[in-house]
Amino acid sequence: MTVITFQNMAVEVKVFLPILSVIWQNDKQLTPVAGPTRCNGRMPVPLQQETTGMSPMMYDRLSRMYDALWGDFTSHYVALIEHLIYKHGLTYARIADLACGTGSLVRDLGMKGHIVHGVDIAPSMIKIARKKTRQFRNVTLRRENMIEFTYRHRFDIISCTFDSINYLAGEKELQAFIKRVSGALKTGGSFVFDLNTEHMYATYQDNVVTHNVNGESFIQRLSYNPRSQIATAMFEFPDGTIEVHQQRPYDARTIKRILARNRMRVVKTYADFSGSPFRPDSHRLICIAEKKIVG
Ligand SMILES: C[S@@+](CC[C@H](N)C(=O)[O-])C[C@H]1O[C@@H](n2cnc3c(N)ncnc32)[C@H](O)[C@@H]1O
Question: How far is the centre of ligand 1, averaged over its atoms, from the C-alpha of 88 (Å)?
């Protein structure tokens, strides 16, 4: 097991943030909040099962540290989305940001005058997003599961950033999610998203990362089970609270196939925000897809 600091692998670790499935407090109290868990001696061990899924309790603790550690990730998306808006010949666009987290992207796009709708399942994250966007009348937020998110008008652009898709619990959920996205997009509209690859999880398995936020340090233990394809990150806080997050990789071919099944085609793929082409050994897939005009 390698011990490394957050600084040494800042960019890479930023992309590994899996599902909260258990909170363990003060060495004694075990409160499962999502997915099956088993208490094995001192550490709660998530069972490696097909259905990981998201719980509304997720990010309860981590949300407080989120912006300090990962809050600037979505800034990369502002230019990308503005470029798409320009390509679509629009001045102002109707945008949905699914799994919007603490709302940084929603805020940045709202500030530019676009009509933005943010959706997230975690109450703790959406609460922060509400605080950040309170002054924007063109911004709405809703706590919902993105697989079945509701909307009144179709969108020009839908985004789902920072490996939020890796939280989906298997291909069935991925299919349901993409179907929903396609249904909510205008014809010709764009879907922008990213996800971690299996190569990424395999590279960083068995790492321990120490984070320090405002003088409080906590540990993130990473592991990956290639058989079940479940990536686990355990966040251990000084007060004994443990949050276990789980994600799973989806390969580019599966993504492409499911998009095609739902009237969408891949327009561009990248491996990073400097525009490097996506390759089989890339750690991240950034994808722009478009809803096809049929007929
Ligand atoms: C790593 S954060 C990314 C947040 C934000 N997109 C960003 O770029 O900072 C993942 C987010 O996905 C949300 N999430 C995961 N699964 C979800 C689901 N099924 N429906 C809605 N939100 C979900 C979590 O609550 C969390 O806020």
Answer: 27
| Mean pLDDT calculated for residue range 210-228 | 94
One-letter identity of residue 237: F
Q: Which two tokens stand for residue 202?
A: 């395999």
pLDDT in tens, 62-101: 999 999 999 989 999 999 999 999 999 999 999 999 999 9
Ligand 1 atom, smallest distance to 173 CA: 19
How far is the C-alpha of 266 from the C-alpha of 291, rounded, in Å?
Answer: 9
Give the tens place of pLDDT for each residue, 46-58: 333 334 566 656 7
Centre of ligand 1 to C-alpha 145, Å, is: 10
In this structure, CATH architecture of domain 1-295: 3-Layer(aba) Sandwich (3.40)
Ligand 1 pocket, 164 CB below 6 A?
A: yes
Token look-up 């809703």 returns 142
Query: Residue 158 C-alpha to ligand 1 middle, in angstroms?
Result: 14
Domain ranges of the chain: 1-295
